[in-house]
Amino acid sequence: MRGLLSIALWALLSLPGLALAQAQTEPAAPDVRMVMDVSGSMKQNDPQNLRANALGLAAALLPPSARGSIWTFGTTVANPLPSAPIDDSWRRRVAELRSRLTDYQQFTDIEKALTAAAAAPPEDSDRHLILLTDGMVDLPASGARKRDLDASSRQRILAQLAPDLASRDVVVHPIALSSNVDLPLLEQIAQRTGGLAAVAHTPDELLRAFLDVLDRIVPGDQVPIDDQQHFRIDDDIDEFNALLFHAPGADSPVLVGPDGQRYSRDDHPGKVEWQSSQRYDLITVPDPAPGQWRIEGQVGGDSRISIQADTVLRSAELPATLYRGFSTPLDVWLERDGSPLAPDQLPSDLAVSAELDDLDGNRLAAAPLVADGRHYRGELPGADQLGNARLTLIARSDRLIRQQVQTVNVVAALSAELSQDGTQIVVRANQPDLDVDNTQLSATLTGKPLAIRQTGPREWIIDVPQTDPNESLPVQIQAEARLDGRTLHFELPIVRLNPDAAVGLSGADLASGVTSQSREQDDGLGTSSDGDSLTDGLSASQMADIAVEKAQQGWRYARPYVETYAQRPVTWAVIGVIVLLWLLLRWRRAVTRRRLSRRAEPRL
């Protein structure tokens, strides 16, 4: 895998066409600071050193107008590559840093790393921090003191550092490189600073995560590739860049123009630039012929056609985080030379819409946008499925088509988390409009209400009583919010006390659904079902609860029949025969085993 990624890295490092296209779609010059975890846990969580390949990918795809810097952290924080403009010299220095990423340190001080990287000059730039980590706060200490230090640092990150970064317009995009992550921490950092959070286990997922983050930092126009691998180029497009992914080692795709001219890796016009690797091809075509183009050869779903054109699609800033059950207002327009086009300058058949799909292409929500002067406005309905999704804005007519794709996180409006000592449950309002003034909580343990107190403008604490540590008990939490004259009801996932206990008191919490640890905690507007497997993310106690509940359900179903037949003598006679046969079978097996054990091995 490392060899494959190295080939892809060096191919990407020579791709000025893509960087140029991205640079021309966004006049602002972002300052991208890549903060790389070199703690000892990364030796297990990133054994293939995917971080090095991630650095090269980002260096290749960032536009020349951007600035970049590299930071490493573990117990201490270092800045091996200070902030500088992205150029060939900077990219070469990135390639030389591979060995620095395996100089492991013992601990993981995420708080110190984010603080140092964000504060470095220039402070007046458009700062984006890409945090690659396994996501575990791990400070130098031991025993109870260590637990307190880790918990305090984590709390400061969420309560102080993240809001401070947001107030200074510093955006953090966390990318977790393993399943062993504190995903709620990373997602909350992203939510509070306006960034995008992602998890990457494989080279493909890592590449996808970086493309998604860079699309947010440097957005640009695309034209869609349809199911037949066709895409349409209009006469307003000056150049397109086709980034086409394919299976490792597969033949490079072929482009076929509207006039039938074929463009292959080994046979294409001199003005066309073609960069190829084992994983993808990037083709830059200047002055492309207008009409329908097609791609021959199977290409991956992350393939894209980026364009440079006079007429571009623009929108009000798109949020990186959407909230389950809450719609998202959208404002979109077509622009030329920096000014929105007037209605009489737009195609008469122009239709503008928004679509939200999961990463597998399944539709989660969609909405048409309605003309309002020079703009198109509407609301995207709230999605039910949590996790990463792609928000696509599309302007389509017979004459032209433009789209922008942004990856977003769909998260729960409210989340609940059991404290490390098990004495409190912390409930937080993730959705910005929810707070202690308009939202009321209730919580019960075995049917008895629990005391709830407000500890912040958007946070509550539920104090839980001391319970038998051998029993895993479910706490049920509900919320009611009043917003814009509407009453919204939320049922949060069950929070279990003593989650590692062998046997739970009740399996009732299964009705609310159990989510995988790799997904944000779910809440609902009313009752919902994600369709997850009943064993997805379950602890031993939760699986035991399932078994107990199933046994109880079986007994309730069978009890009338058992009681009826138990009154008949013949029933007991049949049971006695069955037991006798079972004992006889066990006796014969035991005799056979004893005979085999006495058999001597032959001697030579």
UniProtKB/TrEMBL annotation:
Region of interest (Disordered), residue spans: 513-536
Domain VWFA per the UniProt entry, residue ranges: 31-217
Transmembrane segments: 569-585
Entry keyword annotation includes Transmembrane: yes
InterPro entries: VWF_A, vWFA_dom_sf
Domain of life: Bacteria
Pfam hit, one: VWA_3
Signal sequence bounds: 1-21
Low complexity bias locations: 524-536
Annotated keywords: Membrane, Signal, Transmembrane, Transmembrane helix
Name under which the protein is recorded: VWFA domain-containing protein
Species name: Salinicola rhizosphaerae
